[in-house]
Amino acid sequence: MTDTVSTTPLKDTKFGQKAAGPVGWLDDRLGLGPLVKKNIRKVFPDHWSFLLGEIALWSFVVLLLTGTFLAIWYQPSMNEITYNGSYEPMRGLEMSQAYASTLDISFDIRGGLLMRQIHHWSAALFVAAMMAHMLRVFFTGAYRKPRELNWLIGVGLFSLALIEGFAGYSLPDDLLSGTGLRFVDGLIRSIPIVGSYLEYFVFGGEFPGDLIIARLYMAHIFLIPGLLLGLIAAHMLLLVYHKHTQWPGPGRTEKNVVGYPMLPVYAAKAGGFFFIVFGFTALMAAFIQINPIWTYGPYNPSEVTAGSQPDWYMGWVEGAVRIMPNWEFTIGPETFSLNVFIPAVLLMGLLFTVLAIWPFAERWVTRDNAEHHLLQRPRNAPTRTALGVAGMTFYGVCWIAGGNDIIALKFNLDIFVITWLCRIGVFVGPVIAFIVTRRICISLQRKDNETLLHGYETGIIVRSPDGAYAEAHAPLPADQAFTLSDRKRPQVLEAPETEDEHGVRNPASRKERLRAWFSRKFYEHDLDKPTVEEVEEAAHHHSDDPYPANELPEDFSGVSETGVPKSH
């Protein structure tokens, strides 16, 4: 006997009947019905790496919420006052209204310190999640056609996030943030010819002036958040329009998406994940102190905080400046401070330029004009993965150099030795990382090919009639074999002839030969996947195995080193 459960369509319920009027009114004027109907069942794949972008998104939402709370009491003024607040050690000190209001938020506003710390931790998490998300996109090739524009939007979001973080970090007007402002003032002044003019324009006169906090405040709460919101909206719209990328696997092609629909599954998961991010950030803010401005004191241009460090995402710039030799020269009345301009201004510009042009440069080298909706495993793009790890190594060495004084103090080391090690490491480290990473990727490719042809190790030792012992192998299940082999064969471009059969020089030969050289360097070490003939020969070999695979249990996937059965 079966029970039949009847359901009432939403439009026939009391709620549906009441909502029909306003919804119909909006649809008549905005035409949202077809758009919503088309995208309400939009499918999103399910993989943990896709959560990195969501962490960045929800961290930004937390920043907006907590920033609104803080903006109610913060006063963006550099006017000097005498502090008479509740924090006893600061009473009677001269300070700016900005610093005094930040102290009031921390000690006199209920929940103010918690909100300050949530805001600061969310900013750090926002940049970290965005950086991890961009690395995921880079290493998996998710920026390829048709997503180049979305990659450029991501680069813009990342650069704006760094500026927004610096602006917010400077608003308390304490001694630590003032030291950071002095550092940026030096970067601006190092720009040849126009540096001093730009400084007067930004600060409204000589550093520090009395306008920079108000200007940073307006940029921090209006200009940059507005740009971020616009770019995030464009990023999400392009994500929906292009459909989501997905990992290769059975049933997954360049023309479909395997996953869960937006409503109700994905929306519920995303909403729950927002509360997880908010809760985790609140826990960090409650139990891990960050930016205790009351220990630094108000900013004074004649003082510098001992052991001052910027937020982590700007530490690599300071490190690059610290390890740069003292290259400086004067031509007429102009002083060229290359020791600051090259590692800070020029290096940051070079970073974002390389990030912006990379999808187009790779497309030019590979001449790959096809649309890609399936991701690449990093091991299947060894050169790109190696270049990414080399860049991360360069960043890491600069980041370490940014704390050379702290490292020397805590570990009782010579700061000059650390500086010289970083100077050498910033050139040698990326090269070593590139070579090692590419060899690891190629070894993993070789392992995948071996597994496809010879199967996985079962852990079962068999003895042949002549007394020899060998480990039995079993072929991979069809879905796993398909996943490992679902990748395109590398196509190395051939260099064209410089002249045709009539001796006429090809005007494009130099460019095409350069393209072929880059293509060869990009693909020359890649291992191709096994051919159909090799797979068939391997299958025939498995049929002659002394321990046939068909005698193994269906759920058997081999054993671990300790003899425990495992699954793929």
Automatic annotation (TrEMBL):
Look up the domain of life of the source.
Bacteria
Q: Which GO terms describe its biological process?
A: respiratory electron transport chain
Extract the Pfam families matched here. Answer: Cytochrom_B_N_2
Key word Secreted present:
no
- Catalysed transformations (reactions): a quinol + 2 Fe(III)-[cytochrome c](out) = a quinone + 2 Fe(II)-[cytochrome c](out) + 2 H(+)(out)
Recorded hits in SUPFAM superfamilies, A to Z, give: Transmembrane di-heme cytochromes
Q: How does it sit in the membrane?
A: Multi-pass membrane protein
Where can this protein be found?
Answer: Cell membrane
Q: Where is this region: Disordered?
A: 529-568
* Keywords noted in UniProt: Cell membrane, Electron transport, Heme, Iron, Membrane, Metal-binding, Respiratory chain, Translocase, Transmembrane, Transmembrane helix, Transport
- Domain Cytochrome b/b6 N-terminal region profile, by residue range, is 22-248
Query: GO MF annotations for this entry?
Result: metal ion binding; oxidoreductase activity; quinol-cytochrome-c reductase activity
For the keyword Heme, the answer is yes
Give the matching InterPro entries. Answer: Cyt_b/b6_N, Cytb/b6-like_sf, Di-haem_cyt_TM
Q: Show the ranges annotated as biased composition (Basic and acidic residues).
A: 529-545
Might you report a single GO cellular component term?
plasma membrane
> Membrane-spanning regions, if any?
48-74, 118-139, 151-171, 217-242, 263-290, 340-361, 381-403, 415-437
Which cofactor(s) are needed, names only? Answer: heme
What are the EC numbers? 7.1.1.8
Annotated PANTHER family:
CYTOCHROME B
Q: Know the name of this protein?
A: Cytochrome bc1 complex cytochrome b subunit
